[in-house]
Amino acid sequence: MVAAVPVADAGLLDLNGTLLLEILAFIVMLIILAKYAYPPIIRAAEARQKQIEEGLKAAEEAEKRLRAVQVEVEATMAEARTRAREVITRAHQEAAAEAEEVRERGRRDAEAQVLRARNDIAAERDRALQELRAQVSALVVEAAGRVLGEAIDEKAHHRLIDESLAEVTSRD
Predict the structure, then answer these.
(1) What is the DSSP letter of 151?
(2) Residue (of 23, 26, 4) closest to 13 by Cα position
(3) How far apart are the C-alpha atoms of 151 and 76, rounded to whole Å?
(4) Which residue ranges make up each domain of the chain?
(5) Distance, CA of 161 to CA of 144 (rounded, Å)
(6) How far apart are CA 117 and CA 161, in angstroms?
(7) Residues 147, 155: contact at Cβ < 8 Å?
(8) Exposed/middle/buried for 37, CB within 10 Å: 0-12, 13-18, 19+?
(9) Which residues, including other chains, have CB under 8 Å from residue 165's CB and lie 6 or more apart?
(10) pTM of the predicted structure, to 2 decimals
(11) What's the rounded Cα separation, in Å, for the pair 74 and 68?
(12) Contact indicator for 168, 133 with CB cutoff of 8 Å
């Protein structure tokens, strides 16, 4: 059987060989880890930290460029809107000017047609009056010849025509 160790003999901090070996193994393990394991882990962590910082800087720069591009795009859009408004305004003005020109041309054409019509009417009236005078004078000569009962010579004929025309003209 196994001999039982008295409980009163075992203490919490008894220095025995096992404890010293465990402390020695722990220290050796720390030295091995510090020499071979920790440096690559620390280098990887530092590289990862550097990569994260570079990524953050790149993101900040990209954000700055994006803001600059957005400002540039807004300026370009504002300029395009201004130009579009100018083009539309100019087109409206040109359309209004062209419409006014068409109206003016139509008015001038209408006035010219009215003037031509008035001139045509006046010319037609003058022709009609001349024909009427000629007919009236022929009737007067014929009537005068019948009244007088004799033929009228050429000289008397012209005198009677002139008197008749003067009389007809004075009535107008």
Answers:
(1) P
(2) 23
(3) 103
(4) 43-171
(5) 11
(6) 32
(7) no
(8) exposed
(9) 133, 136, 137
(10) 0.40
(11) 10
(12) yes
